[in-house]
Design goal:
The protein is mainly beta. Helix content is 5%, strand content 56%.
C-alpha cells in the first residue's frame, strides 16, 4: 500500500511541472494549481475493534471510513494483547484508499524453574521442554503449567503474563513415594501388593508410589487378610495383623447309621454327622448304637483341615423272639417292660414279638398276664444269635364270678353270662361261661355287652 501512495505523489509532481511549462509558454492551464479535494480512506483491522489514531488524534474503532486532507499521514492501531501497529501513507486528492491493519499478538517472557531440575513442562497438553526453561514468546493471559518428573508427584502452577515484563513460574516437586511395613502373627505370611508377590512377613518396602494400593496376606490354615489403603508421599503405612485360624470340619459315618456321636465326651448328634467351624486340636470321637459295641477314635484336626471318621460297628447283642398262648401277655426283659404279645386273628397263639438288641450274656425274661401264673426264663445271649421262646400260660385257680353279660338276641337262650378272657382285634370276644368252658362270639352277632355290677 505505502509504495503505491508514494508513486502517485510522484506523478502529481510531474503533472505540476508540465502545467508550469505550459504557463510559461503562454498556454492556458486545464485546472487550478492545487487540488484540495479530500481523500477517503476505509480502515479495517485484524482482529476487528482496534483503537485508531490519525496523526495522534483518536478515532472510532476499526472498521471506519476517514476523510483526510491530501498529503502524508500517520495511522496507529492499538488493541489489548496485541502489538501496536503504525503505518504512514500519502493521500491524493479525491482518492479512495482501503487500508487493512493486521495486528500481531503481544507475547510475554516466561522463566520456568523447578526443584529438582529436569521436570517436564506442559501447557494445554503441549510439551515445552524440561526445566530450566526460557519461553520468550509466551502467550499473554492466565495459564496453568504442569510440572512432572519420574518419582515425583505432578504439580500444576498458575501464572499470569500481562506484557513483556519477565514472569517466573517455579514448582517444588514432592516425591510420589511412601513406605510400607507389614507384620503378622504368626509370621511367614505371603505378602501380595496389587496382586504382585513381595515376600513374606515381616516385610519392609522402602519406596512405594503414592496412591491407592491393595494389600493381601495369605498363610495356609488361616483366613486371608485384605486391606485397601492410601499411601501419601513421605509417610510410612504400617500393617500389623493377627491372622485368624481357618475353622476345620469333621464328619462321622457309621455302619449301620444312626449311632450317637460324641466329640470329647459331648453328644453332638446321630450319624451320619458333620460339624464345621471347629478349631484345630485333638478330638476323641465315640459312636454308640444300641446292640453294638461302642467305637472310639482319637484324631488331630489341623488348621482348616477336614476329617472323616468312619466306624464299622460290631454287633454286641442278640435277639429273642417271644410268642404266648394266649396273646396279651406282658413281656419284661431284666425288669424292663418291652410290650404285650399281639393276637393273630382268632388264633390262640400270639404273633411273635421280636426283642432286638438284647445285650450279650445272661438275661432274664418275665411273662405276666392277669389271671395267669407269671413265668420267668433265663437265657445266655450270644451276639448275632436269636433265641426263640414260646410260652403257654397257665390260669390261676380262682372263684368263678361272671363279670359281663353278652346278648346275641332276645330271650334267655341268647343271653350269656361269664368272664371275658380275650378281646380280639377284629372285635370278637372270648367269654368263659363256666369254669374252663369258653365260648367265642363274633363281633357281628353281638348285640349288647353289659358289665355285671360287683357286690
Amino acid at each position: 500500500m505505502q509504495p503505491w501512495i508514494h508513486s502517485a505523489a510522484g506523478m502529481g509532481r510531474m503533472l505540476l511541472a508540465a502545467w508550469l511549462i505550459g504557463l510559461s509558454a503562454g498556454c492556458r492551464p486545464a485546472r487550478p494549481l492545487e487540488d484540495a479535494r479530500p481523500c477517503q480512506i476505509y480502515v479495517t483491522s485484524d482482529p476487528a475493534g482496534a483503537a485508531l489514531a490519525l496523526d495522534g488524534a483518536g478515532l472510532s474503532p476499526a472498521p471506519v471510513t476517514l476523510q483526510v486532507r491530501p498529503g502524508e499521514h500517520l495511522l496507529t492501531a492499538r488493541k489489548p494483547g496485541y502489538e501496536e501497529k503504525r503505518i504512514t501513507f500519502n493521500a491524493r486528492a479525491g482518492e479512495r484508499i482501503p487500508v487493512e491493519l493486521k495486528l500481531e499478538p503481544l507475547r510475554g517472557l516466561l522463566l520456568v524453574h523447578s526443584q529438582p531440575d529436569g521436570a517436564d513442562v506442559e501447557m494445554n497438553s503441549v510439551h515445552y521442554g524440561k526445566t530450566p526453561l526460557l519461553l520468550p514468546n509466551f502467550p499473554l493471559g492466565r495459564h496453568q503449567i504442569r510440572f512432572s518428573a519420574p518419582g515425583y508427584l505432578p504439580k500444576v502452577v498458575e501464572v499470569e503474563v500481562a506484557d513483556r515484563t519477565p514472569v517466573l513460574a517455579r514448582a517444588r516437586l514432592d516425591s510420589d513415594a511412601g513406605r510400607l511395613s507389614v507384620d503378622s502373627k504368626p509370621a511367614g505370611a505371603q505378602v501380595l501388593l496389587n496382586g504382585a508377590e513381595l515376600g513374606k512377613t515381616p516385610l519392609r518396602q522402602p519406596r512405594l508410589p503414592a496412591g491407592r494400593h491393595v494389600l493381601e496376606l495369605a498363610l495356609a490354615g488361616y483366613n486371608p487378610y485384605r486391606e485397601e489403603f492410601e499411601v501419601k508421599a513421605g509417610v510410612e503405612h504400617k500393617v500389623n495383623v493377627t491372622l485368624t485360624p481357618l475353622p476345620g470340619s469333621l464328619a462321622v459315618h457309621t455302619d449301620p447309621p444312626g449311632a450317637r456321636v460324641f466329640l470329647n465326651d459331648q453328644y453332638r448328634g446321630d450319624s451320619p454327622f458333620a460339624a464345621t467351624g471347629l478349631p484345630p486340636g485333638k478330638y476323641v470321637v465315640r459312636a454308640e448304637l444300641r446292640g453294638y459295641a461302642p467305637a472310639l477314635s482319637t484324631n488331630v484336626l489341623e488348621l482348616g483341615g477336614e476329617l472323616l471318621v468312619e466306624f464299622k460297628l460290631e454287633r454286641d447283642s442278640g435277639t429273642i423272639l417271644v410268642s404266648t398262648e394266649p396273646p396279651g401277655v406282658t413281656v419284661f426283659l431284666n425288669g424292663e417292660n418291652r410290650g404285650v404279645t399281639e393276637a393273630r386273628g382268632t388264633e390262640r397263639i400270639s404273633a411273635q414279638m421280636a426283642l432286638d438288641f438284647v445285650p450279650r450274656g445272661r438275661q432274664t425274661l418275665q411273662l405276666a398276664r392277669q389271671g395267669y401264673y407269671d413265668v420267668a426264663h433265663t437265657r445266655m445271649i450270644v451276639p448275632g444269635q436269636t433265641e426263640i421262646i414260646h410260652e403257654k400260660m397257665r390260669l390261676r385257680p380262682v372263684e368263678f364270678v361272671p363279670t359281663h353279660v353278652i346278648r346275641t338276641g332276645e330271650g334267655p337262650a341268647f343271653t350269656f353270662r361269664g368272664i371275658i378272657r380275650e378281646r380280639f382285634g377284629n372285635g370278637d370276644i372270648k367269654l368263659e361261661i363256666e369254669p374252663g368252658i369258653f365260648k367265642t362270639f363274633r363281633a357281628a352277632e353281638i348285640l349288647e355287652i353289659e358289665p355285671i355290677p360287683g357286690d
